[in-house]
Amino acid sequence: MDFEELERLVDLIQQASVCEITLKRGDQRITIRRSLHPVFPQNQEMCLATSEDEMELAETSLSEESLRTETAYVKAPLVGIFTHVRPQVKVGTPVNEGQVIAQIEAMGIKNEVVAPIKGVVQEVFVEDMQPVEYDQELFLITSERP
């Protein structure tokens, strides 16, 4: 894959409503991910666009609320069978950083899945007793920053 093809893929994902694309060609594999929640360094000016019109559009699309929200995807640390803990963590459940929110059983050993941030579960991507792959998204958690 050459640089021009890679640039076209990046442009395509920026314009499309997808946040991830994986392309396999022979023994080559490339994954491009787009963050839905941009992260900007605090106390620094943001340079989002070059023209004034684009800058105005960018300023209106970035709300103060979206910059205060932290988002974390909880991913599977290994391949295995996903199981919910009791009480089951569902959409809307508040969780603390480090709290065990699920387990993945592999070769008869149960491995804990913990919440990376304090927040509220927004999405659960897997069902109980479902096989999961390494790095597969399990939960989406959002948190309000002070």
Outline:
This protein has helices spanning 3-15, 52-61, 64-68, and strands at 20-25, 28-33, 69-75, 80-84, 94-95, 100-106, 109-114, 119-124, 130-132, 137-144.
What does this structure look like?
- This protein is 19% helix and 38% strand.
- The chain is an alpha+beta fold and 146 residues long.
- Strands 3-10-8-5 form a four-stranded antiparallel β-sheet. A four-stranded antiparallel β-sheet has the order 7-6-4-9, with no helix packed on it. It has a two-stranded antiparallel sheet with strand order 1-2.
- The longest helix has 13 residues, at 3-15.
- The radius of gyration is 19 Å and the shape is flat.
| Shape descriptor | flat
For the sheet with most strands, the description reads: 4 strands, antiparallel
Assign the structural class, choosing from mainly alpha, mainly beta, alpha/beta, alpha+beta, or little secondary structure: alpha+beta
Task: For the largest sheet, list the strands in their spatial order.
Answer: 3-10-8-5
- The span between the termini is 44 Å
Number of helices: 3
Radius of gyration: 19 Å
String of helices and strands: HEEHHEEEEEEEE
By DSSP, the count of extended strands is: 10
Low-pLDDT segments: 37-62
Q: Helicity range of the residues?
A: 10-25%
